[in-house]
């Protein structure tokens, strides 16, 4: 029998992991919802931003805040580059081709990263304290990213609801054709969305280096999970994606303690598959 | 394709091993065998893909097929002649379990792709989790039967595998061609266009989708068996990862999934490309070959969306002329 304290610790770790997953999922879901294309390559952009952080901070000795700003800038730049170079020429193509183009980009980025930086795992070292609350250890390397992630999601929410561009993005997500008829230029909205999505990738990368080391195949670790969270939450549904992140992270974290890490992911994926059958519109959709 | 061209191509392929000696010849043979196996798998995938059932998890079927045969042989010394049918039956059952709710609950488009992606990941993770028998992420080597053995389907002579996989590929072409000429194709195309409309003219949507998925999965499993027997080593990443599932789709889309030889052209080109890049760069610039591969894939998809062979065969997208609707099955 497993000591309940371990389960509690797993549940808390699940919440902390959920915060990061939610940030990843929101960035991808924004692009998914507005442009209607699955960026299979999304978490690989996060990986590149993690490398930016590693090199600027650990190798060139920049202070962490400056390195983080660099990662955010690179993230936004990559988002725009992916959109302009790869996505915009194939906006009218069948969805399968759009999916595969970003998949090809995934091969490209993974291999180019291997070529440039080899498959070594690299980590940014922090000396941060751990807090002990009732026998449970809460490392600051998990608490700080969680807190920043929640703040960032609030900022995104305010951006989407209180600014003109944010409102335009939500409008395009609701009805692509009508938005063009209203005189807004969807192309500009797309570029902005990709930039914001990329910025979120940069931020997610910044927060992930607190806990994970970076290597060229980092994307495989979080990529599939991120798409599934987006779909589970409902395409383009931000609140749904937020809740779905915590559901998935709790399943992974708790099953990981009582069974094994792989089985944690297996159960999470099976839950995703079953939910697709019974709630294809996402967990918050009304059942038909 | 005209009958003459088919006969010439067939005779040419049958004669190839006669001109290949030891050394480089064996390498060429090895590349050709891989091309046949992956073309066969690509054909199996395109049976579904061409009707809009874009699976991103065919690695699941490949993995179940290959691992079933390998485990039965290693632990029970069960000959692949029995193991392969078991593997195919098991995969078909698994595919039916996935496909039935998918068509029953109308999981289509992006959603179908992501569900199959999850299925592929589940199989890969289960193989890794059951490391006590499967060897986990280290993979599993088929126990050698000693000398060449027909019973164990292990041969030291590559030519046997050449003819074996050539036959497999030909079977794949035949299945594709039969389906292309059958009523099922019309039914599936109608379903791919609009499920509700298809159902309203009397097409049994679930039955057709289930059938095509099971057929595709069973053939893919057979491809996995062929791969396991030839390479004699199975690994969850090379058989069931997202990488391999995407590679299958890439090859088919690159060749063109609406033409008979599309998957073959695509698989042959991607293998030739990665092999020649590997030779060109060798161990000097690790990752460079794959980098160029990825870049070319993106460029091909942007500039040749109908696939290479597909573009040569049909100048425009495969819009079929409107025919009067006839009730099917």
What does this structure look like?
Chain A is mainly alpha-helical. Chain A has helices at residues 4-35, 42-59, 64-87, 95-117, 140-162, 164-174, 176-181, 186-208, 218-233, 238-258, 261-278; strands spanning 130-133, 136-139. Chain A has eleven helices and two strands, in the order ααααββααααααα. Chain A has a two-stranded antiparallel ribbon with strand order 1-2. The relative contact order of chain A is 0.19. The mean pLDDT of chain A is 87. Chain B has a domain at 31-240. Helix content of chain B is 72%, strand content 1%. Chain B contains 15 helices and two strands. Chain B has a two-stranded antiparallel sheet with strand order 1-2. At the A-B interface, helix 4, helix 9 and helix 11 of A face helix 4, helix 5, helix 12 and helix 14 of B.
Topology overview:
The complex is a heterodimer of chains A (288) and B (329).
Chain A: H1 4-35, H2 42-59, H3 64-87, H4 95-117, E1 130-133, E2 136-139, H5 140-162, H6 164-174, H7 176-181, H8 186-208, H9 218-233, H10 238-258, H11 261-278
Chain B: H1 3-15, H2 24-49, H3 58-76, H4 80-104, H5 110-129, H6 131-134, E1 140-141, H7 158-181, H8 183-193, H9 195-200, H10 205-231, E2 233-234, H11 236-240, H12 242-255, H13 262-281, H14 288-303, H15 308-313
Antiparallel strand pairs in B: 1-2
């Amino acid at each position: 029998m497993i000591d309940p304290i371990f389960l509690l610790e797993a549940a808390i770790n699940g919440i902390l992991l959920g915060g990061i997953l939610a940030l990843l999922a929101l960035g991808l879901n924004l692009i998914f919802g507005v442009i209607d294309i699955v960026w299979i390559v999304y978490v690989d952009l996060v990986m590149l931003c993690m490398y930016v952080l590693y090199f600027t901070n650990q190798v060139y000795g920049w202070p962490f805040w400056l390195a983080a700003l660099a990662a955010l800038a690179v993230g936004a730049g990559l988002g725009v580059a992916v959109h302009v170079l790869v996505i915009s020429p194939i906006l009218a193509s069948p969805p399968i081709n759009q999916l595969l183009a970003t998949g090809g980009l995934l091969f490209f980025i993974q291999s180019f990263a291997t070529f440039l930086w080899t498959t070594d795992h690299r980590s940014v070292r922090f000396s941060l304290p751990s807090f002990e609350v009732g026998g449970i250890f809460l490392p600051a390397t998990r608490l700080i990213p969680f807190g920043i992630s929640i703040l960032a999601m609030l900022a995104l929410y305010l951006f989407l609801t209180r600014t003109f561009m944010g409102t335009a993005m939500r409008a395009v997500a609701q009805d692509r054709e009508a938005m063009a008829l209203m005189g807004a230029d969807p192309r500009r909205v797309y570029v902005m969305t990709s930039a914001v999505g990329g910025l979120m990738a940069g931020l997610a990368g910044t927060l992930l280096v607190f806990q994970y080391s970076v290597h060229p195949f980092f994307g495989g670790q979080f990529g599939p999970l991120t798409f599934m969270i987006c779909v589970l939450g409902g395409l383009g549904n931000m609140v749904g994606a937020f809740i779905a992140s915590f559901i998935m992270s709790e399943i992974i974290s708790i099953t990981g303690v009582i069974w094994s890490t792989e089985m944690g992911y297996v159960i999470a994926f099976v839950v995703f598959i079953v939910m697709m059958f019974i709630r294809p519109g996402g967990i918050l959709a009304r059942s038909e | 394709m005209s009958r003459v061209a088919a006969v010439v191509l067939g005779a040419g392929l049958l004669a190839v091993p006669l001109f290949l000696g030891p050394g480089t010849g064996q390498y060429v043979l090895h590349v050709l065998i891989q091309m046949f196996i992956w073309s066969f798998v690509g054909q199996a995938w395109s049976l579904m893909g061409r009707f809009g059932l874009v699976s991103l998890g065919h690695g699941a079927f490949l993995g179940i097929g290959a691992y079933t045969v390998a485990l039965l042989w290693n632990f029970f010394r069960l000959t692949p002649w029995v193991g392969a049918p078991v593997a195919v039956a098991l995969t078909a059952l698994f595919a039916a379990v996935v496909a039935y709710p998918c068509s029953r609950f109308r999981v289509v488009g992006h959603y179908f792709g992501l569900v199959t992606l999850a299925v592929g990941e589940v199989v890969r993770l289960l193989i890794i989790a059951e490391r006590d028998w499967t060897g986990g992420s280290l993979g599993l080597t088929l126990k050698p039967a000693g000398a060449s053995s027909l019973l164990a389907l292990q041969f030291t002579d590559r030519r046997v595998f050449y003819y074996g996989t050539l036959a497999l590929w030909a079977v794949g072409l035949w299945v594709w061609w039969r389906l292309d000429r059958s009523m099922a194709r019309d039914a599936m195309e109608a379903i791919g266009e609009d499920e509700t409309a298809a159902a309203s003219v009397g097409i049994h949507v679930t039955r057709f989708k289930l059938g095509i998925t099971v057929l595709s999965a069973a053939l893919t499993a057979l491809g996995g068996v062929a791969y396991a027997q030839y390479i004699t080593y199975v690994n969850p990443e090379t058989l069931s990862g997202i990488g391999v599932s995407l590679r299958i789709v890439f090859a088919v889309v690159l060749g063109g999934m609406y033409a008979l030889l599309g998957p073959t052209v695509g698989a042959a080109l991607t293998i030739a490309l990665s092999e020649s890049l590997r030779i060109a760069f060798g161990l000097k610039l690790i990752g460079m070959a794959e980098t160029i591969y990825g870049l070319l894939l993106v460029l091909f998809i942007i500039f040749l969306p109908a696939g290479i062979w597909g573009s040569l065969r049909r100048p425009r997208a495969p819009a079929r002329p409107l025919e009067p609707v006839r009730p099917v099955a």
